[in-house]
Amino acid sequence: MRRLWLIFAQAVTVSVAVLFVLNTLKPEWLKGAAPASVVAILEAPGTGATSTTAAAGSYAEAAKRSMPAVVHIYTAKDIARPRHPLLDDPIFRHFFGDRQDNAPAQRASGLGSGVIASPDGFILTNNHVIDGADEIEVALNDGRKFPAKLVGRDPETDLAVLKLQGNGQLPAITFGAKDALEVGDVVLAIGNPFGVGQTVTMGIVSALGRSQLGINTFENYIQTDAAINPGNSGGALVDSQGSLVGINTAIYSRSGGSLGIGFAIPVSIARNVLEQIVATGQVTRGWIGVEIQEITPELAESFGIPDTEGALIAGVLRGSPAEDAGIRPGDILLGVEGKPVHDPKGMLEMVAGLPPGHRAQFHVRRADTDLDLQVEIGRRPTPASER
């Protein structure tokens, strides 16, 4: 037994000595026996777990999916030169006669962005981007340019739909789910700010349902701190998957540049306007012909009502659906089709969403009496700016 132990101890000693000699004189022989994956990871930082972490914080895939569907819109229109004030001066006209100012009109150009909404060439953009334009050209992200025609517009939401005069399938954007956004979600704003070229900025959803900004008649904006600048109007606001969640429309700024407060029209509104314009060339909304007013605490006290819920009917247009149904000034509208009315904005949106010709139930309070009136919804008149 002792002899076996001595043989084992000598073998271990010789093995340790051989490893020591090899490690000293030929260390590469030992390294060559190591697994290749270990060497690759150590020699190439940025692969393996490190690259996975970097990819998780990147929105490159979302940008790649959505950027081809965002276009640049170039517009042109004639603007009459201002009449020289001396031409209206009686003394000047006495000496020089009635001269006509025949100077040619100035040619003005505009710049904005748009979103390809369908492969056959329908494009969503802002109404103010194409307002008054007599020439519209669209440049795709791949450099191709096409003339475009105006299909229809909706000044009350500041949206317009164009149609490309080109052939072939186009890279259309994917529409996001309705009401899928939450405050704090990451969003990307894509457009052509200041004409520098397609640009992607990142931010979060700062707020939802922003209204009473005085921008448009129907306001339900997404607020974001993703940088939106002049030229971004009509561009895409997309989520972290690259799906369209809004159309960039306006900014709050005292300098003309981004201050971190931008507004986008939600995709639900944009989609509804798009479908109506493509189908009929215009947007049809419900109307009853009343002037509404917010109920302040002072008004609530004077009317003897417990809270400020509802909308005060301040005036009724003669011959309107509201007058025909018996609605009077001083009534308080509390509900439409069983849905509560919380404020004038909510009432306006509810009525606008009803189809003309539909008979809807309006719940009103008159003095101390609650009434249910049947109102035949009319068609909202076309804004003067659209005629």
From TrEMBL:
It comes from the Bacteria. Pfam families: PDZ_2 (PF13180), Trypsin_2 (PF13365). Residues 277-341 form the PDZ domain. The keyword Protease applies. Keywords: Hydrolase, Protease, Repeat, Serine protease, Signal. The keyword Signal applies. SUPFAM superfamilies: PDZ domain-like (SSF50156), Trypsin-like serine proteases (SSF50494). Gene3D superfamilies: 2.30.42.10, 2.40.10.120. This is Do family serine endopeptidase. It comes from Aromatoleum diolicum.
